[in-house]
Design brief:
By secondary structure, the protein is an alpha+beta fold. The chain is globular and about 30 Å long. The chain has a five-stranded antiparallel β-sheet with strand order 1-5-4-3-2. A hairpin with a 5-residue loop joins strand 3 and strand 4. About 15% of the residues are buried. The chain starts with 6 loop residues before the first strand and ends in a 7-residue tail after the last helix. It has one domain. InterPro entries: DUF397. This is DUF397 domain-containing protein.
């Protein structure tokens, strides 16, 4: 189920976007995260003015920790 309360229609409204140093970036298949906001916006690097998903910091931290632990082997 998709809810508009977890999206921002224009990700350009956020500042401080960065890509992981592990992303390589040559194929344009990167996510960008913006620092310095109350919530954590995440967007597709190919669409810098498109929508962003917005996560609570605790949810984003839990996701990143799970990735680091290898809980998503195809990521």
């Amino acid at each position: 189920m998709v809810s508009s309360e977890h999206t921002a229609p224009n990700s350009a409204a956020f500042t401080g976007w960065f890509k992981s140093s592990y992303s390589g970036g040559s194929q344009g298949e990167c996510l960008e995260v913006a620092r310095g906001h109350a919530d954590v916006p995440v967007r597709d690097s190919k669409h810098p003015h498109g929508p962003a998903l917005v996560f609570e910091p605790s949810a984003w931290s839990a996701f990143v920790s799970a990735v680091k632990r290898g809980e998503f082997p195809t990521i």
